[in-house]
Every structure is written in structure tokens, then in C-alpha cells.
């Protein structure tokens, strides 16, 4: 009987293997795998808790007793395992073995006939004010009954089905009169006027923006903006010599090596800067943030494939999951451009380029002058160039004198 009931809507088959890729987590977060904890696992007794069978009217399985249990699940992420307890939020769909689940906002419940969307805040109030978040003794005080854990589990599951599927706890038939009265009292309390609803809580997240930035040696490269739902984070990086990670005030942030698995989350900040010393060689550094964030009660998990129906689940007890993010900073020295050295060369003056216009009279060109020095005549002496002019001058004077002498001789002869 118990084995048959495990396959019904009120239970989760222990052989199921659920891969949870958390759509509500940042893209940088790694995939989370959820697995039912088998009975032979030592952790089974820590998280799996038996309730009692209940009958619910108002749905097609109204004549069947449904097992109402807290199901033990393992959240496996990045080598770390965390226990999770869950309730069912969809009648009468069974959980299909191996069908992966994805976390979605409340408004994206895939069942078109579900009442979960309109009553999600009521269901969340139940989860926050009933077992296992609240001890059975708290429910006993609230109802005036002596409520056991098994009765608290059954009443809580019945109250959730009331809001998720419009079903009601059927108390006309019971297995034990006292148990029936206790379950009925807790059920009435959870769906009653005190249930004012609790809005959806933020999903566990950790993000760095932007993913990459660049600068030059001597700069503070950043800021890298950090946002997370976690209380504190672990900052990891393999830093080059002289490079440090600092906050907005310039204080050095505690940084662990990337391979350090023992580093504790004890740092809280909103901005990260990469401080690169002056004169550093060109390079880059990647740093990561890691945190254990709270997976709140009320997180909704549904089939990741719309064509494959499977039971939708809601987290019953808050747990811690690991979230990660990574960013990279690079630096490069500015290249200084040196102008080329020019050598002054003496050149002879050249004639100006001819005008493109047609002048009325052609311009005379200036003859090219020699760069050799010109000798200067001393005092009244003329510069000697070519043959001397004094020889012909002396000959002329001699002839002139001879002519004059001849004329004098001839005159004397006539007078004689």
C-alpha cells in the first residue's frame, strides 16, 4: 500500500533523479543537480520525514488516500551537497523519474488549471508558519491541540493542496479519531484568517558587472559592481606580484588562492577594484566570488521541458546553496610615439616653380650662382682675367710716338 501511494501526487519516488538548472540564479552560477536521498543513505533519516495519509475532496483522486510526506532531496552543486525538504504543489500529477526541473517565478507554474499562481503568497505563508520551519509544539500552541510531527506534516501538505489545487481535507473518514482532530485543527489554522500571505522571496544570487574591464599600470581598474543575496562572500584570485584587489575606499580585500577550498566567506563589499602598480608588465587577472546563499522556502521547481509533465515542487525548509561569479581585469602600458629625427641638408637655391597661370610676359629666370668664393681686387687693381690688355696699349703708344716724330722731321725739311 505504501509503495503504491509513493507514486501518487502526494509523494516523490525515491528513485527519481532531478537535475535542477536554476533559471532564477544568475547566468554565472553553475547548474544544480537535485537527487532524492535513497533509504540506505545515512542522510535519509535527517531529511525524509513521514507524515500520515489524508483524503482530499475536490479532485479526481478524491477516493484515494494520499501519502503526505516531507521528501528528502540532495542539492549537489560544485562538489558540495546540501539536504533539502520539499512539499508537493500539484495534484494529481506524479513525479516522473529523471525529468529535470527548473526554478521559475511563481507566475510561471506550467499547469493552466492550477490555483498556485493566485495563491502562491498563501502557500508561502504556510511554509513559513508550519512544520518544519516551525516546530510541532508551535502548532500545538496555536491550535490548542497536542500535535505530533507526523500530524503537522499531513496538515501542512493538505493546506498547500487546498491553495494549489482547490482541494479540501476530507474528514468524514479517518484512521484515528484523535489524529483526525489534530490534523483538522492545524489545517484550519493554516488556511484561516491569520494567513495573510508572504510575497515571493529573492532567489539566491551572486553577480559581478561588468565581466571585463581594462586599464594601464598605475590605475585602479574598476569598479566591478557586486550584488548578492548572501551575507558574505569568498574572494579568490591568483594575483601577479604587486597587484591587489581593493574596495571603494582603497582598502585591500582579503583574497584567497583559487585552489583554496578552506577559505571562509567573511567579506562583504559592493565594489571591487584591481590595483596595478606603476611600471607593471602588460597582463591580466581573473578573480572569482563565491558565497553560500539562502535558498528560501517557497522556491518553485517545475519541469524544464513543457512537453514532459512532472510533479511541481516547492521548497519546504530554507537551505544554503553555493553561488559563483567571475570577472577579468587587464592592463597595458600606453605606447609613446617618438617623432623621427630629421637632418638639415644645405641645397642650392633653385628657380621658382613656374606659375600655373599664363602671364602676359615671360618671367626671366635667375641664373644659378656658383657657391665658390669670388676673389676681390685690392685697391684700384682690376681683376686679371684672360690675356693682359697692357701689351697692345704700349704698342699703340709707341706707334703714336713714332708718327709724331716723323711729322716733326718733315716740317723741318720744308723750312730748311
From TrEMBL:
Keywords: Cell wall, Membrane, Peptidoglycan-anchor, Secreted, Signal, Transmembrane, Transmembrane helix. Residues 1-31 form the signal peptide. The keyword Secreted applies. Residues 382-416 form the Gram-positive cocci surface proteins LPxTG domain. Residues 328-378 are annotated as: Disordered. The chain crosses the membrane at residues 389-410. Residues 336-375 have a biased composition (Low complexity). Coiled coil: none annotated. InterPro entries: LPXTG_anchor, Thioester_dom, TQXA_dom. This is TQXA domain protein. It comes from Actinosynnema pretiosum. The lineage of its organism: Bacteria, Bacillati, Actinomycetota, Actinomycetes, Pseudonocardiales.
Amino acid at each position: 500500500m505504501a509503495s503504491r501511494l509513493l507514486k501518487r501526487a502526494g509523494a516523490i519516488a525515491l528513485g527519481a533523479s532531478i537535475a535542477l538548472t536554476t533559471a532564477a540564479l544568475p547566468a554565472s552560477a553553475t547548474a544544480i543537480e537535485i537527487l532524492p536521498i535513497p533509504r540506505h543513505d545515512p542522510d535519509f533519516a535527517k531529511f525524509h520525514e513521514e507524515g500520515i495519509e489524508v483524503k482530499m475532496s475536490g479532485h479526481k483522486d478524491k477516493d484515494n488516500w494520499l501519502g503526505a510526506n516531507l521528501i528528502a532531496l540532495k542539492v549537489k552543486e560544485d562538489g558540495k551537497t546540501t539536504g533539502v525538504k520539499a512539499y508537493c504543489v500539484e495534484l494529481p500529477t506524479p513525479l516522473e523519474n529523471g525529468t529535470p526541473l527548473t526554478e521559475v517565478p511563481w507566475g510561471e507554474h506550467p499547469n493552466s488549471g492550477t490555483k498556485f499562481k493566485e495563491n502562491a503568497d498563501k502557500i508561502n505563508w504556510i511554509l513559513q508558519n508550519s512544520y518544519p520551519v516551525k516546530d510541532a509544539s508551535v502548532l500545538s500552541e496555536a491550535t490548542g491541540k497536542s500535535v505530533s510531527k507526523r500530524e503537522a506534516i499531513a496538515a501542512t501538505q493538505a493546506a498547500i493542496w487546498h491553495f494549489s489545487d482547490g482541494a479540501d481535507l476530507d474528514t468524514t473518514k479517518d484512521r484515528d479519531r484523535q489524529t483526525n482532530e489534530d490534523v483538522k485543527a492545524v489545517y484550519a489554522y493554516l488556511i484561516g484568517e491569520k494567513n495573510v500571505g508572504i510575497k515571493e522571496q529573492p532567489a539566491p544570487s551572486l553577480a559581478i558587472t561588468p565581466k571585463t574591464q581594462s586599464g594601464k599600470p598605475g590605475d585602479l581598474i574598476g569598479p566591478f559592481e557586486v550584488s548578492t543575496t548572501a551575507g558574505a562572500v569568498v574572494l579568490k584570485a591568483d594575483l601577479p606580484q604587486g597587484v591587489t584587489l581593493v574596495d571603494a575606499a582603497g582598502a585591500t580585500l582579503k583574497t584567497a588562492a583559487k585552489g583554496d577550498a578552506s577559505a571562509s566567506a567573511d567579506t562583504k563589499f559592493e565594489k571591487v577594484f584591481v590595483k596595478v602598480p606603476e611600471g607593471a608588465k602588460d597582463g591580466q587577472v581573473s578573480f572569482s566570488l563565491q558565497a553560500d546563499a539562502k535558498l528560501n522556502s517557497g522556491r518553485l521547481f517545475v519541469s524544464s521541458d513543457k512537453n514532459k509533465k512532472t510533479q511541481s515542487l516547492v521548497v519546504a525548509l530554507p537551505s544554503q546553496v553555493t553561488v559563483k561569479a567571475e570577472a577579468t581585469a587587464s592592463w597595458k602600458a600606453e605606447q609613446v610615439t617618438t617623432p623621427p629625427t630629421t637632418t638639415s641638408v644645405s641645397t642650392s637655391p633653385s628657380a621658382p616653380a613656374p606659375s600655373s597661370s599664363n602671364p602676359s610676359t615671360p618671367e626671366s629666370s635667375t641664373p644659378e650662382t656658383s657657391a665658390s668664393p669670388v676673389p676681390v681686387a685690392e685697391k684700384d687693381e682690376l681683376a686679371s682675367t684672360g690675356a693682359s690688355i697692357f701689351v697692345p696699349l704700349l704698342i699703340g703708344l709707341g706707334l703714336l710716338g713714332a708718327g709724331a716724330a716723323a711729322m716733326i722731321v718733315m716740317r723741318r725739311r720744308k723750312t730748311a
